[in-house]
């Protein structure tokens, strides 16, 4: 929290990360994927409060070895921040990118918005 009672900007990134992990986990999206780029726009200060916020996530691009997600932290009335997250399929053995397998492509297709 900052001095004005706002949720700190780094917390927005944590919220978005937790949402991505939950989304992939619940859909059985396996394999190793890493964040290659994260762009975030803070639109409206988010104050600490008892009510939860919603995080919406959808796929905007599917490439050979990467994909892009659009995310919003919002409630019914207000969008607090928007983000674009580029993720790359990653091979832990070679420490390099790898092509997205077909099962992951199909799951990502289901999330296109």
Automatic annotation (TrEMBL):
It comes from the Bacteria. SUPFAM superfamilies: Thioesterase/thiol ester dehydrase-isomerase. InterPro entries: 4-hydroxybenzoyl-CoA_TE (IPR050563), HotDog_dom_sf (IPR029069). This is Acyl-CoA thioesterase. It comes from Nocardia seriolae.
